[in-house]
UniProtKB/TrEMBL annotation:
Record's keyword terms, sorted: Cell membrane, Electron transport, Heme, Iron, Membrane, Metal-binding, Transmembrane, Transmembrane helix, Transport
Location relative to the cell: Cell membrane
GO biological process, alphabetically ordered: respiratory electron transport chain
SUPFAM superfamilies: Transmembrane di-heme cytochromes (SSF81342)
GO cellular component: plasma membrane
Annotated family: Belongs to the cytochrome b561 family.
Native organism: Pseudoalteromonas lipolytica
GO molecular function: electron transfer activity; heme binding; metal ion binding
Protein name: Cytochrome B
PANTHER family: CYTOCHROME B561, CYTOCHROME B561 HOMOLOG 2
Transmembrane segments annotated in the record for this chain: 12-34, 54-71, 92-110, 143-163
Length: 184
C-alpha cells in the first residue's frame, strides 16, 4: 500500500516521515557540533557543506510531503481518541511544519547572505537571491538557532505523544506510522 487510506498511512508517507525525522535529528546534531568548530578545524568547511546539502534535501522532501499531503487521503484519528487530544496533535503537527519552514528558509538566508549559491553535494547549486538585507546572516542565524531548538522541543512532545498512544492508550497511532494497516 503506497498511498494513505482512511485508517492508515501508506509506505510513501511513512518513508518520508522517518527520512525527515532522521534528517532533522542529524542536522540538529551536526549543527550543535558545527558551532563549536573554529575556522581552523579540519572539518569546518566539510561540516558546513554537508549541513547545507542535507538541509536543501530536507527542504525538497518537505515540499514533496506538503504536495503528497495535499493531493492524498489523510487517515482519520484512531477510534476512541478525544477531540481535545486530536486538536492538540493537529496543533503540534502545525508547529512542526511551521518550524521546518522557518528553519529551511533561515538556513537558506544564512547560506546565501554573501550572494553565493548553495552547492548541494557538488551535484547542482541553489542560487542566492539577488538582494540581501543588512546583517542578513546574523538575523537569519538567530532565527535558525531558536527555531531549531524549538523544533526539537516540539518533536520530543510529538514522540512522547506517540509513545503515550502506544503504551498507555494501546491504540494503533504509532503502529500506523511504522507500517501500513489494512482498512477495518
Amino acid at each position: 500500500m503506497l498511498k494513505n487510506s482512511k485508517s492508515s498511512y501508506g509506505w510513501v508517507a511513512i518513508l518520508v516521515h522517518w527520512l525527515m525525522a532522521l534528517g532533522v535529528f542529524g542536522l540538529f546534531g551536526l549543527g550543535v557540533y558545527m558551532v563549536e568548530l573554529t575556522y581552523y578545524d579540519a572539518w569546518y568547511k566539510g561540516s558546513l557543506d554537508l549541513h547545507k546539502s542535507v538541509g536543501i534535501t530536507l527542504a525538497a522532501l518537505l515540499l514533496f510531503r506538503f504536495g503528497w499531503r495535499l493531493l492524498g487521503t489523510q487517515p482519520e484519528p484512531v477510534a476512541g481518541s478525544s477531540k481535545a487530544m486530536n486538536r492538540v496533535a493537529h496543533s503540534v503537527h502545525k508547529l512542526i511544519y511551521l518550524a521546518l519552514i522557518v528553519i529551511v528558509t533561515s538556513g537558506y538566508l544564512i547560506s546565501t547572505a554573501d550572494g553565493r549559491a548553495i552547492e548541494v553535494f557538488n551535484l547542482f547549486a541553489v542560487p542566492a537571491l539577488p538582494e540581501s538585507v543588512a546583517n542578513q546572516e546574523d538575523i537569519a542565524g538567530k532565527i535558525h538557532f531558536y527555531a531549531a531548538y524549538g523544533l526539537i522541543a516540539v518533536v520530543v512532545l510529538h514522540a512522547l505523544g506517540a509513545l503515550k498512544h502506544h503504551f498507555i492508550d494501546k491504540d494503533k497511532t504509532l503502529i500506523r506510522m511504522i507500517k501500513p494497516l489494512k482498512d477495518d
